[in-house]
Amino acid sequence: MKITAIRLTRLKLPLDPPFNASWDPHPRRDFPATLVEVQTDSGLVGFGSGDTMDGFEAYEHLFLGTDPLQILNQVRRIETINFHGGRYWPLEAALWDIIGQVAGLPVSILFGGARDRLLAYASCGELKSPADRAESALAAKDRGFRAMKIRIARDRIEEGIAAVRAARNAVGDDFDLMVDLNQMWRMSGDIDAALPLARVQRIAAELSDLGVLWLEEPLPQADVVGAQRVRAQTGIQIAGGEMVRTIAELSALIEADAFDIYQPDVALSVGMYRARQVAESANLRHRMFTPHTWSNGLGLLANLHVAAGVDAGPYLEFPYDPPGWTPERRDFFLEPLDIDSTGHLLVPTAPGLGANIDHAAVKRYTV
Ligand SMILES: [Mg+2]
Questions:
Q1: What is the pTM of this model?
Q2: How many angstroms is it from 349 CA to the middle of ligand 1?
Q3: Residue 55 pLDDT > 90, yes or no?
Q4: In the chain, fewer beta carbons within 10 Å around the N or the C end?
Q5: In which region does residue 182 sit, left (phi positive, over 0), alpha (psi from -120 to 50) or beta (all else)?
Q6: Residue 113 has what pLDDT?
């Protein structure tokens, strides 16, 4: 089989009502999405999304005429580009979509087939007042979620901890709360200092007292010793690694026992094939893997297939913070993914990734 064309369609997310990623001191004002469509000489077509794919056109010729089924070679090809420029993992997702269709199986089966559904956690994207966050946590619990992750802005720590406390008081103890400090995360141009270790240790101690299940990215990526100290001092579980750029760096973090939970996003970090390697390495050491999924519905779907295949857990991230961030907005160019009444996200059973692309929406939102 040969790849005959790679079509990129750049889309603009509908932003009414507005979504304010105000946990980040340098928030993004737009949320571009790019749909990748891989066409083959067999007539099979695969779709992927997640990264913007900016600059990919210069490398497209490296893939045309190659075999989509030789997936390791395709992964290596994408890595050689990653070394110089962008991370084009949505292309890998589109290739797995084709491989699944050839096999007649959902991609999750090709990754291990451990589960056909995963518990999802509501992952918040906006800063809300303690009262509003408590209300949203209760609403999420009523909707079937069993867990929620709250972001705390590094320049509004006290307000953030108050929001976690209010949420805990509202939902009680039979609902998991996680917190993301996003200190491994940087928007381009953000050169502000990270919070110092001593401050993070105090924050972690307070969050541990509130029964927080994990603290995500408490420190910059290089501060592995700091992450280990926070964990040893407070007993809180540490999560991280969502945007780590290479499998070598992730392997080194696992070797150093940096975290309890490893979170490379298959659409943004090291791709799907390599994420399975991360999951297996982490699991062998009695550590967890559950990917970051914050891109769009097709990115979430690629993560769901890998996560279900490799038995990720304890929850899969489900970006959800209404009214600003809903399944309809997140998945604006496909049939939205949603949890069932027990808080599970079901893996589609159709061959490939099983996305139902809304071609009218693609047309409507093409830039
Ligand atoms: Mg995060």
A1: 0.97
A2: 28
A3: yes
A4: C
A5: left
A6: 98
How far away, in angstroms, is 185 Cα from ligand 1 center? 8
d(CA 172, CA 53): 42
Residue 254 in this model has a pLDDT that exceeds 90: yes
Alpha-carbon distance of 155 to 140, in angstroms, equals 26
Scan for tokens 């600059």, then name that residue: 55
Distance CA(181)–CA(190), nearest Å, equals: 15
Widest distance between CA atoms in the chain: 59
Contact between 301 and 354 (Cβ < 8 Å): yes
Whole-number Å distance, alpha carbon 240 to ligand 1 midpoint, is 7
DSSP class of residue 257 equals T
3-state secondary structure of 243: coil
Query: What's the gap in Å between 361 CA and the centre of ligand 1?
Result: 28
User: 180 C-alpha to center of ligand 1: Å?
Assistant: 6
Q: Which tens digit of pLDDT belongs to each residue from 22-34?
A: 778 777 777 789 9
Q: At how many degrees (to 10) do helices 297-310 and 89-103 cross?
A: 60
Report how far ligand 1's centroid is from the alpha carbon of 70 (Å): 32
CB atoms within 10 A of CB 95: 28
What domains are there in the chain, each with its CATH number?
A: 3-106+359-365 (3.30.390.10), 110-346 (3.20.20.120)
CA of 182 to the centre of ligand 1 (A): 6
CA 244 to chain centroid, in Å, comes to 12
The residue type at 187: M
Give residue 264 CA to ligand 1 midpoint distance, Å.
10
Please state, in angstroms and rounded to a whole number, the distance separating the CA atoms of residues 6 and 3: 8
